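Sample intake sheet
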Amino acid sequence: QVQLVESGGGLVQPGGSSALSCAASGSDFTINDMGWYRQAPGKQRELVASITAVGSTKYVDSVKGRFTISRDLVKNTVSLQMNSLKPEDTAVYYCKVFLWISGYLRTYWGQGTQVTVSS
Protein backbone atom coordinates (compact mmCIF):
# COMPACT_ATOMS: atom_id res chain seq x y z
CA GLN A 1 0.00 0.00 0.00
CA VAL A 2 1.35 3.39 -1.02
CA GLN A 3 0.69 6.55 0.92
CA LEU A 4 1.55 10.17 0.25
CA VAL A 5 1.95 12.42 3.26
CA GLU A 6 2.27 16.16 2.88
CA SER A 7 3.81 18.57 5.36
CA GLY A 8 4.44 22.29 5.57
CA GLY A 9 2.22 25.19 4.66
CA GLY A 10 0.26 27.34 7.07
CA LEU A 11 -0.10 31.09 7.42
CA VAL A 12 2.52 33.27 5.75
CA GLN A 13 2.79 37.03 5.35
CA PRO A 14 2.90 38.51 1.85
CA GLY A 15 6.47 38.46 0.59
CA GLY A 16 7.34 35.58 2.86
CA SER A 17 8.43 32.05 2.14
CA SER A 18 7.13 28.60 2.86
CA ALA A 19 8.07 25.07 1.92
CA LEU A 20 5.94 22.02 1.24
CA SER A 21 7.09 18.43 1.25
CA CYS A 22 5.41 15.22 0.13
CA ALA A 23 6.74 11.80 1.06
CA ALA A 24 5.76 8.54 -0.60
CA SER A 25 5.84 5.47 1.60
CA GLY A 26 5.26 1.83 0.87
CA SER A 27 7.19 -0.72 -1.09
CA ASP A 28 7.86 -2.04 -4.57
CA PHE A 29 7.36 1.13 -6.53
CA THR A 30 9.42 3.33 -8.83
CA ILE A 31 8.76 7.04 -8.94
CA ASN A 32 7.99 8.58 -12.30
CA ASP A 33 6.74 12.16 -12.63
CA MET A 34 5.82 14.26 -9.60
CA GLY A 35 3.98 17.53 -9.25
CA TRP A 36 2.21 20.09 -7.10
CA TYR A 37 -1.32 21.34 -7.73
CA ARG A 38 -3.35 23.94 -5.92
CA GLN A 39 -7.01 24.76 -5.58
CA ALA A 40 -8.28 28.10 -4.36
CA PRO A 41 -11.87 28.56 -3.15
CA GLY A 42 -14.26 28.67 -6.07
CA LYS A 43 -11.55 27.83 -8.59
CA GLN A 44 -10.46 24.74 -10.45
CA ARG A 45 -7.43 22.78 -9.36
CA GLU A 46 -4.38 23.89 -11.35
CA LEU A 47 -0.93 22.47 -11.93
CA VAL A 48 1.64 24.66 -10.20
CA ALA A 49 4.87 22.81 -10.88
CA SER A 50 6.03 19.43 -12.11
CA ILE A 51 9.25 17.46 -12.31
CA THR A 52 9.82 14.48 -14.54
CA ALA A 53 11.68 11.28 -13.80
CA VAL A 54 14.77 12.76 -15.44
CA GLY A 55 14.51 16.04 -13.55
CA SER A 56 12.93 18.36 -16.10
CA THR A 57 10.76 21.01 -14.46
CA LYS A 58 7.79 23.11 -15.53
CA TYR A 59 5.96 25.91 -13.78
CA VAL A 60 2.73 27.79 -14.29
CA ASP A 61 3.53 31.33 -15.40
CA SER A 62 2.22 32.92 -12.20
CA VAL A 63 4.88 31.23 -10.02
CA LYS A 64 7.90 31.27 -12.33
CA GLY A 65 10.92 32.74 -10.60
CA ARG A 66 9.27 32.41 -7.18
CA PHE A 67 8.63 28.68 -6.69
CA THR A 68 11.10 25.81 -7.03
CA ILE A 69 10.18 22.14 -7.25
CA SER A 70 12.70 19.48 -6.32
CA ARG A 71 12.76 15.80 -5.56
CA ASP A 72 14.81 13.30 -3.60
CA LEU A 73 14.59 9.85 -5.14
CA VAL A 74 16.36 8.25 -2.17
CA LYS A 75 13.87 9.63 0.34
CA ASN A 76 10.98 9.40 -2.17
CA THR A 77 10.01 13.01 -1.60
CA VAL A 78 8.96 15.97 -3.71
CA SER A 79 9.24 19.48 -2.33
CA LEU A 80 8.02 22.92 -3.28
CA GLN A 81 9.93 25.98 -2.09
CA MET A 82 7.73 29.05 -2.33
CA ASN A 83 9.26 32.53 -2.11
CA SER A 84 7.83 36.03 -2.49
CA LEU A 85 4.39 34.72 -1.69
CA LYS A 86 1.35 36.71 -2.72
CA PRO A 87 -2.22 36.63 -1.41
CA GLU A 88 -3.28 35.03 -4.69
CA ASP A 89 -1.09 32.03 -3.83
CA THR A 90 -3.56 31.17 -1.08
CA ALA A 91 -4.94 27.70 -1.78
CA VAL A 92 -4.92 24.08 -0.73
CA TYR A 93 -1.81 22.50 -2.24
CA TYR A 94 -1.78 18.86 -3.32
CA CYS A 95 1.12 16.69 -4.41
CA LYS A 96 0.56 14.22 -7.21
CA VAL A 97 2.90 11.35 -7.91
CA PHE A 98 3.02 8.80 -10.71
CA LEU A 99 4.40 5.46 -9.54
CA TRP A 100 5.31 2.34 -11.45
CA ILE A 101 3.89 -0.61 -9.53
CA SER A 102 4.01 -4.15 -10.97
CA GLY A 103 4.34 -2.78 -14.49
CA TYR A 104 1.44 -0.32 -14.19
CA LEU A 105 1.66 3.45 -13.92
CA ARG A 106 -0.56 4.54 -11.06
CA THR A 107 -1.47 8.01 -9.77
CA TYR A 108 -1.51 9.02 -6.12
CA TRP A 109 -2.57 12.29 -4.48
CA GLY A 110 -1.52 13.76 -1.17
CA GLN A 111 -4.12 14.78 1.38
CA GLY A 112 -3.73 18.50 0.70
CA THR A 113 -2.22 21.22 2.86
CA GLN A 114 -3.48 24.77 3.30
CA VAL A 115 -1.27 27.72 2.44
CA THR A 116 -2.69 31.10 3.42
CA VAL A 117 -0.88 34.29 2.46
CA SER A 118 -2.21 37.17 4.50
CA SER A 119 -1.06 39.99 6.72
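Comment: The two ends are 41 Å apart (CA to CA). The chain has no helices and eleven strands.
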